[in-house]
Amino acid sequence: MNEVYEMSLGLHLSFAKVLLILLFVHLVLIYVGDTENPSYIKRLRLFLPLYNATMALMFFTGALDLAILHFALSFPVIWMIFCFVALCILGVWGYKRMKIAARYRDFATFKKLMTLKIFCEIILVALAVAFGIKY
Question: Given its phi and psi angles, is residue 130 left (phi above 0), alpha (psi -120 to 50 degrees) or beta?
Fold first, then answer.
């Protein structure tokens, strides 16, 4: 059982690192490209399944780790669950803002809001990893 836990924990941390990299890539994708070109929104929409798949894999490995620990809820576990829910809510909000920006062609506001959203997500992931490793 220890081997499964160690492997799952390693995967969980690896997915957290991949998620941080994807957040920086998302930030770059927001600022690169012509907003008048329809491929701008299409490129962002094609990126989101990779981000969501990474979130799903991180959730799965975290749930596996929690099951191996007999669902013992400690502060770091509760904090990581809170961060995951917050990341999901921010993701839904960002997708909704992207649809509004595509409809009304208001990309200046979209870029500002997405920058704020992505920095909040980076902080959440960094804090979840920091609390998870420290405790």
Answer: alpha
- Per the listing, tokens 């927001």 go with 30
Residue 83 · residue 128 · CB < 8 Å: yes
Residue 111, pLDDT > 80, answer yes
pLDDT grade for 121, boundaries at 50, 70 and 90: very high
The CA distances from residue 103 to 37, 66, 98, 113, in Å, are 13, 42, 9, 16
Tokens of 55: 């979130």
The model's pTM: 0.88
Asked if the model's pLDDT at residue 85 lies above 70, the reply is yes
Q: What is the three-class DSSP state of 39? A: helix
- How far does CA 16 lie from the centroid of its chain? 8
Instruction: Quote the CA–CA distance of 91 and 45 in Å, as a whole number.
Output: 12
